[in-house]
């Protein structure tokens, strides 16, 4: 059995990207849970974040770790396979089976940096083709957080009549200068790795794991709040009783970051990280709407749910509040919630009872 079940899209013709370049054929790897009902009205599309994948509620076959959103998705949970037909696909540019830099060219060689630069809009266009492939005219809901939340917003702009509701969480309508800066440092860590080799490392014994690990370490800092990091680690030492006065991982927080970085290199592709962070940096719905952000949300009648967390400094509360203001200015049915939490950007993935109760109420009343 294929480890990444996938659909081949645009077999006979290529897909035009927002860059005007052509790409094809395009494969999209996806995972479904539950059954599509007779009138095809119970389908929910889940959009994953930067380093997520299609295994939202089931064991990842590469890492053997459980699904990344089991707080939300699963039997007797908010999004329930006994009620809903749940779809989650690996994004365009990803490395879990969907077309990206790991895709093989006609000679059997990985595309690497020959893969074209993509956008969040391109990811959504490919997802929309998957929904067509599955024979679904209108989704019950589209939901996602972080980069997944960007995809949700882009669905509203590009395909405003293809859903009854959306939930966009811990995100923004554009990537900030700070986030672009963090991404650039992460990309430079990868590109500066001597084994990156201009992206042509797939058949080499050594791969740019050190650069990718550093990129992940940097990103992981942004996912936690300062308070959460202090509570979790403080200045606790790692398996030692006193300072070594050497360049070792004296502190527990150092050891944690190295662990996260090393673990990440076992499941993610360095080139994919470059392409996906670049897609996030290019995301700017105001720019794509001719400088008039309300234009992005004028069409459609889907119910909209927005959520943010007080300690998220990667996508701060002000971003969601600005979105709410814009959506209300064009008379959209929008519910905006801000939840007090110390869990930082990662809060939407963790146990947050108030958020989960609120989201459950929204989903149940679509």
Present the secondary structure layout.
Blueprint: E1 6-9, E2 15-16, E3 22-23, E4 26-33, E5 43-47, E6 85-89, H1 120-133, E7 141-145, H2 147-158, E8 165-169, H3 177-191, H4 209-223, H5 226-232, H6 252-265, H7 270-282, H8 285-288, E9 303-309, H9 317-329, E10 334-339, H10 353-364
Parallel strand pairs: 5-6, 5-7, 7-8, 8-9, 9-10
Antiparallel strand pairs: 1-4, 2-3, 4-6
Helix pairs in contact: 1-2, 3-4, 3-7, 4-6
Provide structural commentary.
The chain is α/β, with parallel strands linked by helices and 366 residues long. It has two domains: 6-175 and 285-364, Rossmann fold (3-Layer(aba) Sandwich), CATH 3.40.50; 180-276, Rna Polymerase Sigma Factor, Chain: A (Orthogonal Bundle), CATH 1.10.1740.110. Helices cover 33% and strands 13% of the residues. Strands 1-4-6-5-7-8-9-10 form an eight-stranded mixed beta sheet, sandwiched between helices. The protein has a two-stranded antiparallel sheet with strand order 2-3. Helix 3 runs antiparallel to helix 4 and helix 3 packs antiparallel against helix 7 (270-282). The two termini are 36 Å apart.
CATH hierarchy class name of the largest domain = Alpha Beta
Contiguous low-pLDDT stretches (5 residues minimum) are none
Helix residue percentage: 25-40%
- The CATH architecture of the largest domain comes to 3-Layer(aba) Sandwich
In this structure, how is the largest beta sheet organized?
8 strands, mixed
* Oligomeric state as shown: single chain
Q: What general outline do the C-alpha atoms trace? A: globular
Q: What series of H and E elements makes up the topology?
A: EEEEEEHEHEHHHHHHEHEH
Number of domains: 2
Number of helices: 10
Mean pLDDT: 95
Strand content: 5-15%
CATH topology of the largest domain: Rossmann fold
Which structural class fits the helix and strand makeup?
alpha/beta
Q: CATH superfamily name of the largest domain? A: Alpha/Beta hydrolase fold, catalytic domain
The strand order across the widest sheet is 1-4-6-5-7-8-9-10
- Over all CA atoms, what is the radius of gyration? 20 Å
Distance between the termini: 36 Å
Beta strand count = 10
């Amino acid at each position: 059995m294929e480890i990444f079940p996938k659909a081949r899209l645009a077999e006979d013709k290529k897909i035009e990207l927002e860059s005007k370049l052509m790409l094809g054929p395009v494969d999209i790897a996806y995972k479904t849970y539950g059954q599509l009902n007779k009138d095809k009205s119970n389908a929910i599309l889940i959009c994953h974040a930067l380093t997520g994948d299609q295994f939202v509620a089931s064991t990842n076959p590469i890492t053997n770790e459980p699904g990344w959103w089991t707080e939300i998705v699963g039997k007797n949970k908010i999004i329930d396979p006994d009620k809903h037909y749940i779809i989650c696909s690996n994004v365009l540019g990803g490395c879990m089976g969907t077309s990206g830099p790991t895709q093989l060219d006609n000679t059997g060689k990985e595309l690497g940096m020959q893969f074209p630069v993509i956008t969040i809009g391109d990811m959504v266009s490919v997802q929309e083709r998957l929904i067509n492939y599955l024979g679904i005219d209108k989704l019950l809901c589209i939901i996602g957080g972080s980069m997944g939340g960007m995809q949700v917003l882009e669905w509203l702009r590009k395909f405003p009549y293809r859903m009854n509701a959306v939930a966009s969480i811990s995100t923004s309508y554009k990537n900030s200068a700070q986030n672009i800066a963090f991404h650039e440092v992460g990309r430079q860590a990868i590109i500066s790795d001597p084994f990156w080799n201009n992206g042509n490392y797939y058949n080499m014994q050594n791969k740019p794991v050190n650069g990718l690990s550093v990129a992940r370490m940097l990103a992981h800092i942004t996912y936690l709040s300062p308070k959460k990091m202090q509570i979790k680690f403080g200045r606790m030492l790692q398996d030692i009783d006193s300072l070594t006065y050497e360049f070792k991982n004296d502190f527990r927080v150092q050891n944690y970051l190295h662990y996260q970085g090393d673990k990440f290199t076992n499941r993610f592709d360095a080139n994919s990280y470059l392409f996906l962070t670049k897609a996030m940096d290019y995301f700017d719905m105001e720019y794509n709407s001719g400088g008039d952000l309300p234009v992005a949300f004028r069409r459609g009648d889907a119910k909209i749910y927005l959520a943010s967390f007080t300690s998220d400094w990667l996508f701060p509360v002000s971003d969601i509040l600005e979105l709410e203001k814009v959506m209300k200015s064009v008379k959209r049915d929008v519910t905006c919630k801000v939840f007090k939490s110390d869990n930082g950007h990662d809060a939407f993935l963790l146990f947050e009872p108030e958020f989960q109760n609120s989201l459950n109420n929204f989903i149940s009343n679509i």
